[in-house]
Amino acid sequence: MSLLSYVDTAMILFIIAVIIGAIAILKLNSNKTRRISNLRLYIQIAAVIGIFLGLIIGPFNGPDSVWRPLGVSPRSNLLGVDALGSQFPDGITAPILACYIPNGRTVTCAIWQIQSYIFPFWNYSRGYDVFYALTGLEMLLIVFSSLIAASLLLGRSFCGWLCPFGLYQDLLTRLRRLFKKRHLTLSKKKIDQLSQSRWIIIAVIILASVVLGSYALFGFEIIPGTALDTGHDALHSGIVSYVNEPYCLVCPERPLCILVQCAVGSMEWSYVSQIAYGPFYIAGWYVTSINLAVLIAVSLLAFAYRRFWCRICPMGALTALFSSHRPFNRVALTKLDKDREKCTKCGVCKRVCPMDVSEVYERKGGDVTASNCTLCLRCVEMCPYKDALKVKFAGKTVAASKDWLSEKG
């Protein structure tokens, strides 16, 4: 059996196994207050195994590929090329932290693509061992079109159900519970301030990318040494090699993803350490002093405060912008709906929310989807009043709260 046939067969069997497992969780789990949460954890783990570790859907292609030293798992499906053609070889745009370096060309974080297509790939045909048939502007249009479409389709459920870093934070929460420690809470003012900081981060990302790409964009350098010559070598020298994606220098997902992949053998640490010039090199690629320090800090905060990073994540902010803010919220397909006649203001939804979302409790009824809501549906499964809360897709109810206090089973 060829490598391609092996990968295709593995993908099909994996998908079938995931579906069977999901049905079993829904049918056999008698605890109604944990059924959705258990299903969500299962889907999160399956996504990490199937996509983000490259164990089933591999990001790098061919046994003779220059990327072969990155790992030993089957990597014959170059999904970006297979699905979109060579015009868009960096992977399908995903509204989640799917790091390009270990996962690229399968699904790729939109933040990475936005930075890269402003600088350094605005008008250069040669990228990281790939060729671009489209300009940076054209690729940005594809990225934002894909991001908007995904957000309108499923909203921030990508954050709650698929994002690898979301799973990491959920596991930290379970670890804290294992030690029987209560989570810390933030005031409404602090929550709002953290939420606003997302837009500052996005503005800094775009501004930094424009400054770095000023030569390609405007014909002059704002920072000396940022003008690119055509050719592959220009992308691996000087300032370009270290700050071409400024957000990625501080993103906690990149070092986490790389460390996990190295731990399971999906990536080779010798290659990672060689490129990074040692695990504690201050800048560069892969695991560095900067992103490792950010990961440690965020991990400690996420251990104390539920889903701390999700409160400031720029990727989550962009997804929310195109799903829960006007005018997009009027046509978004996935929504959290509240029946004001059945709600008794018991406050359960507010207490159990990992993101401390208060809008579900405070709003009278109708669409109560908030920009901070990751659609984890914890409020839906914990609400003790039948049909008081519902998650709807295209107007059809997908899940609804149950009268689990009086119902048996």
Task: Explain what this protein looks like in three dimensions.
This protein has helices at residues 3-28, 35-52, 79-84, 100-103, 110-118, 136-154, 157-161, 164-178, 188-212, 214-218, 240-243, 253-264, 269-276, 289-304, 314-321, 348-352, 359-362, 378-382, and strands at 92-94, 107-109, 334-338, 366-367, 389-393, 396-400. It is mostly helical and 409 residues long. A 4-stranded antiparallel β-sheet has the order 4-3-5-6. Strands 1-2 form a two-stranded parallel sheet. A hairpin with a 2-residue loop joins β5 (389-393) and β6 (396-400). α5 (110-118) runs parallel beside α9. The termini are far apart. Mean pLDDT is 82; it is low at 59-67, 69-78 and 230-234.
Continuous helix count: 18
Contiguous low-pLDDT stretches (5 residues minimum) are: 59-67, 69-78, 230-234
List the domain count as a whole number: 2
Radius of gyration: 22 Å
Cα(first) to Cα(last) distance is 47 Å
Order of helices and strands: HHHEHEHHHHHHHHHHHEHHEHEE
The main sheet comes to: 4 strands, antiparallel
Shape: globular
